[in-house]
Amino acid sequence: MTFSMLYFAQGSILGYFTALNAIYLRSFGISMSQIGIFSAVALMPLILKIFLGMLSDRVNLFGMGYRKPYIIIGLLIQAGGQLVFMLINPSESFVLLTMVAFLSLTGFNDTCNRHAKQRLCQFNAVPAKDLDSSFRGFV
C-alpha cells in the first residue's frame, strides 16, 4: 500500500508538470518552444536519479546513514523550491523559474526514491545495512 501511495503522489506531481504546467505558462505568454525547454529541464532529474542514487548509496552524509540525510535534504530542497516557484513571474524570470523547477524536482525525486528503498527494507525484513552494501553503487 505504501508503494502505491508513494508512486500515486509522485505520478500526480509529474502529471501536473506534463499537463497543467503548459497551460499555466501559456497564460503568461510563454511560447510553446520555451515550455518544451522548461519541461525538458524540469524533468531531467528523472533521468539523473540513477547518479544521485549511486552517490547516496556510497556517501554516508553527516554520519547519519545512507537515507535519512538525503530524505531530509530532498524535502527541504523541494519545499523551498515550491515556495520560491510561487513567487516567480514566468514572463519576467523564465530562466530562474526553470532552475527552481529543476531543483525542486531533484529534491522530490531523491526523497521519493530514498523513501521507497527504506520501505523495501521494512517489507522484506532485509536489514538496511545489508541492502545498502549489496546495492551500493547500483540503486
Care to give the gist of this entry?
The chain has 139 residues and is an all-alpha fold. Helix content is 78%, strand content 0%.
SSE inventory with pairings:
Layout: H1 2-26, H2 32-42, H3 44-58, H4 68-87, H5 94-123, H6 128-135
Helix pairs in contact: 1-2, 1-5, 2-5, 3-5, 4-5
Can you describe this structure?
This protein is an all-alpha fold and 139 residues long. It has one domain. The protein has six helices and no strands. Helix 2 runs parallel beside helix 5 and helix 3 packs across helix 5.
Structural domain count:
1
Count of DSSP strands:
0
Low-confidence stretches: 131-139
End-to-end Cα distance, whole Å, is 22 Å
Rg from Cα = 17 Å
- Tally of helical runs: 6
Labels describing this entry:
139 residues, mainly alpha, 6 helices
